[in-house]
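Researcher: Structure prediction, please.
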Amino acid sequence: MKLLVDSGSTKADWIAIDDSGKVLFTTQSLGVNPEVLGKDEVLNRLNDRFDISHNRK
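Model: Predicted structure follows.
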C-alpha cells in the first residue's frame, strides 16, 4: 500500500493505493506542515484519522 498526501497548513487530502494502483480509500485531515508542526503533532494528526491509523500494515 502507498499513502499519498497533498497537504498545506490547513488541510490534507489523502489517497491510499495498492500495488496495482487500485484506490483503497481517500480521506481528509487537518493540515500536516512539517515546517510548522513538530513530529509529535504530525503523528497525533495521523493517528486521529481512523481510516489512516487502522489501515496500517
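Model: The two ends are 8 Å apart (CA to CA).
Researcher: Thanks, that helps.
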